[in-house]
Write a structure and sequence with these properties.
This protein is mostly helical. The protein has 4 helices and 2 strands. A two-stranded antiparallel sheet has the order 1-2. The protein is flat, with a radius of gyration of 26 Å.
Length: 128
Protein backbone atom coordinates (compact mmCIF):
# COMPACT_ATOMS: atom_id res chain seq x y z
CA UNK A 1 0.00 0.00 0.00
CA UNK A 2 2.94 2.37 0.46
CA UNK A 3 3.48 2.57 -3.31
CA UNK A 4 -0.12 3.64 -3.78
CA UNK A 5 0.34 6.33 -1.15
CA UNK A 6 3.25 7.85 -3.09
CA UNK A 7 1.24 7.75 -6.31
CA UNK A 8 -1.73 9.52 -4.71
CA UNK A 9 0.49 12.14 -3.03
CA UNK A 10 2.33 12.74 -6.31
CA UNK A 11 -0.85 13.20 -8.33
CA UNK A 12 -2.31 15.55 -5.73
CA UNK A 13 0.95 17.54 -5.75
CA UNK A 14 0.89 17.78 -9.53
CA UNK A 15 -2.76 18.89 -9.42
CA UNK A 16 -1.90 21.69 -7.00
CA UNK A 17 1.14 22.68 -9.06
CA UNK A 18 -1.09 22.90 -12.15
CA UNK A 19 -3.93 24.73 -10.39
CA UNK A 20 -1.81 27.66 -9.21
CA UNK A 21 -0.62 28.90 -12.63
CA UNK A 22 -4.00 27.97 -14.14
CA UNK A 23 -5.75 30.25 -11.65
CA UNK A 24 -3.38 33.10 -12.51
CA UNK A 25 -3.91 32.44 -16.21
CA UNK A 26 -7.68 32.55 -15.80
CA UNK A 27 -7.39 35.75 -13.82
CA UNK A 28 -5.20 37.28 -16.54
CA UNK A 29 -7.75 36.27 -19.19
CA UNK A 30 -10.57 37.82 -17.15
CA UNK A 31 -8.64 41.06 -16.83
CA UNK A 32 -7.87 41.07 -20.56
CA UNK A 33 -11.58 40.57 -21.32
CA UNK A 34 -12.40 43.44 -18.92
CA UNK A 35 -14.15 41.16 -16.43
CA UNK A 36 -12.31 42.29 -13.32
CA UNK A 37 -12.09 39.45 -10.78
CA UNK A 38 -15.70 38.47 -10.23
CA UNK A 39 -15.99 37.31 -6.64
CA UNK A 40 -18.22 34.48 -5.51
CA UNK A 41 -18.01 34.75 -1.73
CA UNK A 42 -15.92 37.57 -0.36
CA UNK A 43 -12.29 36.87 -1.27
CA UNK A 44 -13.06 33.67 -3.22
CA UNK A 45 -12.64 34.36 -6.93
CA UNK A 46 -14.35 32.46 -9.72
CA UNK A 47 -10.99 32.00 -11.44
CA UNK A 48 -9.60 30.15 -8.40
CA UNK A 49 -12.69 27.94 -8.13
CA UNK A 50 -12.51 27.09 -11.84
CA UNK A 51 -8.78 26.33 -11.76
CA UNK A 52 -8.93 24.15 -8.65
CA UNK A 53 -12.06 22.45 -9.98
CA UNK A 54 -10.32 21.56 -13.25
CA UNK A 55 -7.25 20.33 -11.37
CA UNK A 56 -9.40 18.23 -9.03
CA UNK A 57 -11.31 16.65 -11.91
CA UNK A 58 -8.03 15.91 -13.71
CA UNK A 59 -6.54 14.34 -10.56
CA UNK A 60 -9.61 12.16 -9.96
CA UNK A 61 -9.65 11.10 -13.60
CA UNK A 62 -5.94 10.29 -13.46
CA UNK A 63 -6.33 8.25 -10.28
CA UNK A 64 -9.26 6.31 -11.74
CA UNK A 65 -7.63 5.70 -15.14
CA UNK A 66 -5.92 2.30 -14.84
CA UNK A 67 -3.15 2.86 -17.41
CA UNK A 68 -1.96 6.12 -15.87
CA UNK A 69 -2.12 4.72 -12.36
CA UNK A 70 -0.11 1.66 -13.43
CA UNK A 71 2.51 3.87 -15.08
CA UNK A 72 2.79 6.01 -11.94
CA UNK A 73 3.18 2.88 -9.81
CA UNK A 74 5.95 1.63 -12.10
CA UNK A 75 7.71 4.99 -11.78
CA UNK A 76 7.57 4.68 -7.99
CA UNK A 77 8.97 1.13 -8.26
CA UNK A 78 11.87 2.32 -10.42
CA UNK A 79 12.62 5.26 -8.12
CA UNK A 80 12.80 2.88 -5.17
CA UNK A 81 15.66 1.06 -6.96
CA UNK A 82 17.73 4.23 -7.34
CA UNK A 83 20.87 4.54 -5.23
CA UNK A 84 20.75 8.11 -3.98
CA UNK A 85 24.01 9.93 -3.14
CA UNK A 86 24.89 10.58 0.46
CA UNK A 87 24.94 14.08 1.93
CA UNK A 88 28.75 14.12 1.77
CA UNK A 89 28.78 13.06 -1.90
CA UNK A 90 26.23 15.73 -2.74
CA UNK A 91 28.31 18.38 -0.97
CA UNK A 92 31.50 17.30 -2.76
CA UNK A 93 29.77 17.29 -6.14
CA UNK A 94 28.33 20.74 -5.47
CA UNK A 95 31.82 22.11 -4.73
CA UNK A 96 33.11 20.57 -7.98
CA UNK A 97 30.29 22.18 -9.97
CA UNK A 98 30.86 25.61 -8.38
CA UNK A 99 34.61 25.47 -9.06
CA UNK A 100 33.98 24.37 -12.66
CA UNK A 101 31.54 27.24 -13.19
CA UNK A 102 34.03 29.75 -11.77
CA UNK A 103 36.85 28.46 -14.00
CA UNK A 104 34.63 28.53 -17.10
CA UNK A 105 33.40 32.03 -16.22
CA UNK A 106 36.96 33.31 -15.81
CA UNK A 107 37.98 31.71 -19.12
CA UNK A 108 35.02 33.19 -21.00
CA UNK A 109 35.51 36.60 -19.36
CA UNK A 110 39.18 36.62 -20.36
CA UNK A 111 38.29 35.50 -23.88
CA UNK A 112 35.66 38.26 -24.11
CA UNK A 113 38.11 40.91 -22.90
CA UNK A 114 40.78 39.81 -25.40
CA UNK A 115 38.25 39.66 -28.22
CA UNK A 116 36.99 43.16 -27.34
CA UNK A 117 40.54 44.49 -27.33
CA UNK A 118 41.29 42.85 -30.73
CA UNK A 119 38.12 44.15 -32.40
CA UNK A 120 38.68 47.64 -30.99
CA UNK A 121 42.25 47.55 -32.29
CA UNK A 122 41.12 46.35 -35.76
CA UNK A 123 38.33 48.93 -36.00
CA UNK A 124 40.51 51.71 -34.61
CA UNK A 125 38.20 52.50 -31.72
CA UNK A 126 40.00 54.48 -29.02
CA UNK A 127 40.09 52.70 -25.66
CA UNK A 128 38.08 54.34 -22.92
Amino acid sequence: MSRERYVIIGIIGIAIAVALPLAHGFEWMMVQMAIFNPSLLGDVRATDVAAYGIATVAAVFTLNYATTRQLATEVVDELSKVTWPTREETGNNTVVVIITVLICSAYLGLFDAVWLWVTDWILGVPSS
